[in-house]
Amino acid sequence: MTAMKNLFPPDYFDDWNKDKNKPCCCGESGDCYSKMLQCQKCKQWFHDRCIRCFTFLEYELLHGDHFYRFICSKCNEGKESIKRLTMTMNDVVRLTLYNLAFVKPNVYFDIGSVVQFIRTQQNNFKVSDLHLKTVSQEELYNEIKAILNKNNGKFYKKYKSAKGRNTLWAVKKICAPKLLLGLFENDDIVMPEGSKEEYFYHLSIQTNDQFENGIKEN
Fold first, then answer.
1. DSSP-assigned letters across all residues of 16-53
2. 23 CB neighbour count, 10 Å cutoff
3. CA of 72: how far to CAs of 83, 174, 178, 198, in Å?
4. What residues contact residue 55 under an 8 Å CB cut-off, 6+ apart?
5. Is the pTM value of this prediction over 0.90?
6. Does domain 2-84 correspond to CATH entry 1.10.4160?
7. What is the rounded CA–CA span in Å between residue 56 and residue 178?
8. CB 161, CB 191: distance < 8 Å
9. Is the domain covering 89-175+203-213 a CATH 1.10.10 domain?
10. Transmembrane stretches, by residue range (predicted)?
């Protein structure tokens, strides 16, 4: 758990309290699909640059990465609170494809591009239990390939050649945990039993038709 003292002036939130339509408490526009987190208590969105914790931590927020439990200083007695939630390798692959599509003019990418992004951004994923820093290139490639092939409902597949070589992939949507109010007294997050889908945000990049009509080769 990372907690920091509030560095905002006393009246920093005054205008925000009067105008609930502001995307961020700073008053500037924002996009929750990009680098923003939502306070799990008041539901206000914050740019990563407006979250003081990220100013002092040695990593940055990835696009669409909502795998954090964040409570703003206004809701936490003057201190920000941020904690990385558990991510599976499946989550890492989906978030990687989302980020690749966000920063490049392509929507489909080969596995090599996924491996390269994970390698270069491994510090920003902050998932030590997945051993991203120690796994070999071949093992990482094969694990990503298996995930993509086993999850047809989460990824689009496109063949770059008629023989099925150089397969390209795109993410259908990315899900980030939507934590419920009342789960913030303890550090451990416990998701309710039953289908988790109803507790998720669904951040779609494009519809299936938009993918097929707007394919660009990697």
1. HHH-TT-SSTTS----TTSSEEE-TTT--EEEGGG-HH
2. 16
3. 12, 24, 16, 24
4. 49
5. no
6. no
7. 25
8. no
9. yes
10. none
